[in-house]
Design goal:
The protein is mainly alpha-helical. The chain has 7 helices and 2 strands. The protein is elongated.
């Protein structure tokens, strides 16, 4: 089943690495790099970017250390280096390190179009003006007479 676009992570240069299998957990479920890093409390996209910027051997060593911290599945801690070596080949090749941007950062740091931002500011200003003027009105005063009497 394919996720709808609003629920997908979109394209990331790290997808091949993050969605690669570390191995199978004791429960029989596959463990991806994404899940493994998340369980270790590490931002998967940030770590993938960091590892991609390292020389292959240092990246392999760092990933092997992380894998060794996980509970064993169909692999043993001694297999960590071999697993890491396999996974590091899935990282993008870097000429120069780049700043990693997670999907959440893309959403929150997206620049609104200037027309949208201006419209939003105008609406908020109008609501604020209305609220302030409404609260400053005296709601306890008696109704003003229009000079026409209903009694004859």
């Amino acid at each position: 089943m394919t996720l709808r676009p609003e629920f997908s992570l979109g394209h990331s240069e790290f997808n091949d690495f993050l969605f690669a299998s570390v191995g199978e957990e004791k429960s029989g479920l596959p463990l991806t790099v994404l899940s493994a890093l998340t369980r270790l409390g590490v931002d998967p996209w940030g770590e993938a970017a960091r590892l991609a910027g390292l020389p292959k051997e240092k990246a392999t060593q760092a990933l092997a250390t992380a894998i060794a911290l996980l509970p064993e599945g169909d692999w043993k801690s001694a297999d960590s280096w071999a697993i890491a070596t396999r996974l590091v080949t899935r990282l993008p090749v870097r000429g120069a390190p780049i700043l990693a941007v997670s999907p959440a950062d893309r959403i929150w740091k997206a620049k609104p179009k200037s027309g949208t931002a201006l419209w939003l500011v105008a609406v908020l200003a109008a609501v604020l003006l209305f609220t302030v003027s409404y609260q400053s009105m005296d709601h306890t005063a008696a109704p003003v007479s229009n000079g026409i009497s209903s009694e004859h």
